[in-house]
Design goal:
Layout (H helix, E strand, L loop, with lengths): L1 H5 L30 E3 L5 E3 L2 E3 L2 E4 L56 H13 L13 H6 L7 H18 L5 E6 L1 H4 L11 E6 L5 H6 L11 E5 L2 H5 L4 H18 L4 E5 L11 H17 L3 E4 L24 H22 L1
Parallel strand pairs: 5-6, 5-7, 7-8, 8-9
Antiparallel strand pairs: 1-4, 2-3, 4-9
């Protein structure tokens, strides 16, 4: 895959967009406190005829002031223990459709049904001098179909994401940027559902673990994000990792992001519930509680959207998932609502 990557050299165009404020959202936001921020959209938010609960954001101090690298007194144990590289999965998801929550979204003409198709669409975008979150899909059809395709590996995805990050760093200009970091849940976030008004960089890889995320943070170190959203850990649980390993990796992730991006808001998102009998949702809830503590200790924010996705039994709501783990389009609508509120609030603080 070296030749296609060489075609992406000199990516300096197609990324800058006119600076504009985020669209007005009909939401009611309560006053912020030092360690807890409850976000509510109106009095109630309806998705799939179900009521979405309020979302909690625990934070040390949400402001537009630059953060200084934090020297935490919390130790990191087992520093030499580096888990193996995660396996790659070409998980197929339903075709993305235009979101009713985003009136400016454009429906995609490329019907993506596998991780391979998503990869080659993104590679085609790079060959036009752009990243896939900022390009019209209609212009990618011929390029996407002309690329010689083969079976992909985890390293292929790491290389692609590094190229996208490099391209965006070179062409970001004065534009605001948010980054999604994580596994397949982040990777498959439909680009047309991402909140408008800024650039987005998706650094999710299917099958990735917290240790895999930790080892590839340097790929986007040259970017200048306003916000970095982290969600990982579900694949750790699937592969038998201990709670201690997951939490240790999260602490390392937050510390390294804080050092590399001192001005960014780092938001640790709660691990989502599942409908898989082999993964205990009570264990996920326990880990999420510990993530709240880590985020507070390390100067990051914690976004709790776990309850937005649960049914009466505490499992993932069936209409929000395709297989008990991955999200449906309705599931991404729910997640998008949370991001929309965060992005709106941050914009208000900047003004």
């Amino acid at each position: 895959m070296r030749d296609p990557y060489l075609l992406a050299a000199g990516l300096l165009t197609g990324l800058a967009i006119p600076a504009s404020a985020l669209p007005h959202l009909s939401i009611v936001l309560p006053e912020s406190s030092r360690f807890l921020w409850d976000l509510k959209q109106g009095s109630q938010t309806i998705a799939s005829t179900k009521i979405i609960n309020s979302v909690d954001l625990s934070l040390p101090e949400l402001s537009t002031q630059a953060f200084q690298p934090l020297k935490s007194s919390q130790p990191i144990v087992g520093e030499k223990n580096v888990p193996s590289v995660p396996e790659f999965s070409s998980q197929a998801l339903p075709v993305s459709t235009e979101s009713s929550l985003n009136p400016n979204a454009q429906a995609t003409s490329l019907l993506l049904t596998s991780g391979n198709q998503l990869y080659y669409q993104r590679l085609a975008a790079l060959k036009t001098g752009q990243i896939y979150t900022r390009v019209d899909s209609d212009n990618l059809q011929s390029l996407w179909e002309s690329i010689k395709k083969r079976q992909l590996t985890y390293d292929d995805w790491k290389s692609l994401l590094a190229l996208e990050a490099r391209a965006l760093a070179q062409g970001q200009g004065a534009n605001h940027l948010s980054i999604l970091v994580g596994d397949s849940l982040s990777m498959w976030f439909p680009r047309e559902k991402l909140p408008a008004g800024k650039l987005w960089l998706n650094q999710g890889i299917s099958g990735d673990t917290s240790s895999g995320v930790l080892k590839r943070l340097g790929a986007f170190s040259a970017t200048r994000p306003d916000v970095i959203y982290i969600m990982a850990g579900i694949n750790d649980l699937r592969k038998g990792a201990s709670d201690e390993t997951i939490l240790r990796n999260y602490r390392r992730i937050v510390r390294r992001l804080r050092q590399a991006h001192p001005q960014a808001q780092i938001i640790v998102q709660s691990i989502l519930p599942t409908r898989l009998p082999k993964i205990s949702n009570s264990r996920i809830r326990h880990i999420n509680i510990q993530l709240t503590v880590i985020a507070k200790q390390e100067g990051a924010n914690y976004l709790n959207i776990y309850s937005w996705f649960t049914d009466m039994e505490g499992n993932m709501r069936p209409e929000l998932t395709t297989d008990g783990l991955h999200l449906s389009q309705e599931g991404y609508d729910v997640w998008r609502t949370a991001l929309q509120q965060i992005e709106y609030k941050l914009t208000q603080l900047e003004n």
